[in-house]
Design goal:
With about 300 residues, the protein is an alpha/beta fold. It has eleven helices and 14 strands. It folds into two domains: about 1-220, Rossmann fold (3-Layer(aba) Sandwich), CATH 3.40.50; about 225-285. The protein binds adenosine-5'-triphosphate and magnesium ion.
Length: about 300
Amino acid sequence: MANGNVITTHGLTKRYGSSITAVDALDLEVHRGEVFGFLGPNGAGKTTTLRMLLGLIRPTAGSAVVAEHRPGDPKGLRRIGSLVESPAFYPYLSGRENLKIMSDYAGVSHTRVDAALEEVDLADRAKDRFGTYSMGMKQRLAVAAALIKDPEVMILDEPTNGLDPQGVVEMRALIRRLGSGNRTVMLSSHLLNEVQQISDRVAIIRKGKLVAQGTVQELRGESAIVVRVTPVDAARRQLDRMLGAAAVTAVDGTLRLSVDPNKAADINEALVGAGIKVSELRAVERTLEEVFLTLTGEAA
Ligand SMILES: Nc1ncnc2c1ncn2[C@@H]1O[C@H](COP(=O)(O)OP(=O)(O)OP(=O)(O)O)[C@@H](O)[C@H]1O
Ligand SMILES: [Mg+2]
């Protein structure tokens, strides 16, 4: 796949009427084999974007390529599994029977059914009626339905919606597993923590616009150590020698050191050894939650 992107959008835009811009000139890049978290508060445009990627609705402007095809192209759709609206399962049929019906629709052999049930850890309960499933099991069956085609790309809209904490943990583990090989998984969520733990890269949108895209580490920014020391000039000379002058910045009576926070003990030892008093030494690391709050202006 050219440049390793499985999903690319350029200026992707969806307007409703003249006043609502649900998705506003979005440029996304999802790399092959990664788990990509698509984050934003309620109403940010996540579902609208995913629906455009699947060809369920047409963009007002801009373009997208998913699995080397335009959204909605049957050749592309064969390679994409999705969970955007919960599929309608028959309550009086078993999980396995429901999936067999879906595999018939998809033109896929029934042999995929048991593999998909196995993948979502439902093989034990496959013969039970769907109507007797817990919420978490229903959601896992929906993921199994998305897996029927053994897709190379999975697009999941809020897959943990409605699950209890245990169900969320299981779904997270499942998504991580699904995305562990060559398969690419894009999942949306308004819950930051949930996505941060399992995503290789994330995009954050707000009011339809992309506000950040990158690895969790990139978005959190550089970590650093802040020290409060006296005398500050002598400390600075010592630290310049030790870390290089470029790594040391004076900020509000403290020195900010652009180094790995794991170096804290070494730095403390060197300063104290040089007769410098250290009254404060702490690591600064933004959580993704802080970044999200700053970028979206809303609590995650
Ligand atoms: N069919 C539609 N007609 C008019 N406005 C729409 C339509 N679909 C979505 N919108 C509007 O587009 C915006 C984005 O909605 P969308 O459902 O994509 O957000 P979301 O990020 O998925 O939110 P949530 O986290 O609540 O699911 C909202 O303002 C919504 O009201
Ligand atoms: Mg939504």
